[in-house]
Amino acid sequence: MDSNSSKNKKQMIPALIILLILVCLAWLVIKWFISIFSAVPKEVAAPLIAASATIIVSVLSIVIAKYYEKKRTIELEHRNKKIPMYEEFVEFLFKLLMNEKIEGHPMTEQETIKFMSGFTQKLLVWGSDDVIDQWSKYRSMFIKEENVDTAKTMFQMEELLIAIRKDTGHKIKKYNKGDILKLFINDIDKYL
User: Fold this and answer.
1) Residue-wise pLDDT tens digits, 27-82
2) Distance in angstroms (rounded) separating the CA atoms of residues 49 and 37
3) What string of H, E and C letters represents the secondary structure of 148-188?
């Protein structure tokens, strides 16, 4: 944690220097404009200032609008890639939980490993930091523990599902433990 804060401080110093340079440049440009307009007669300066302000405001509004439009387009593209991946995960999850009841046999270990490997690859490219973190915790529960604690696994899965909902743009209210799990686990109350 300390290495991250020292790294952030090291990155902040050049950013502050650049900001200071930009402020100084802006001040010099403003002083230059003032010196130009102070030498011009007032009858000419007023229309020039009005025209300059109109042009500057127009250009800035177009640049800002394009920036936000591009940012929104990128977010939409990412969301369009994420949603099918997350739908695939939820489908896998339900299959993992319900396959024995529906198909008459549980998912094989080979099927589970194949899915988890493929999902991890997609997640590395498209997943948010929070989803990757929750997936890592969920996945490591299966790898590290010989006797998997069902309750811990379920509640970690819930954290993962909440992170997925957040990543797909849902407004996240404060969920109580088990609220999401109640949607598909009938006896969740005995684990609360």
Assistant:
1) 998 888 888 878 888 888 788 888 888 998 999 999 999 999 999 999 889 889 99
2) 8
3) CCHHHHHHHHHHHHHHHHHHCCCCCCCCCCCCCHHHCCCCH
Distance CA 163, CA 135 (A): 9
Is the model's pLDDT at 2 over the cut of 60? Answer: no
The amino acid occupying position 61 is S
Contact indicator for 96, 185 with CB cutoff of 8 Å: no
124 token code pair:
């590395």
Query: Cα–Cα distance between 32 and 157 in angstroms, integer?
Result: 61
Q: Residue 138 is encoded by which pair of tokens?
A: 């969920």
Helix H or strand E segment including 190: none
Compute the distance between CA of residue 134 and CA of residue 158 in angstroms, rounded to an integer: 9
pTM: 0.67
CA distance 23 to 173: 40
What mean pLDDT do residues 114-133 have? 93
| Structure tokens, 28 | 């010099």
State how far the Cα of 2 lies from the Cα of 39, in Å rounded to an integer. 56
Where are the alpha helices (H) located in the chain, listed in sequence order? 2-39, 42-103, 109-126, 129-144, 150-167
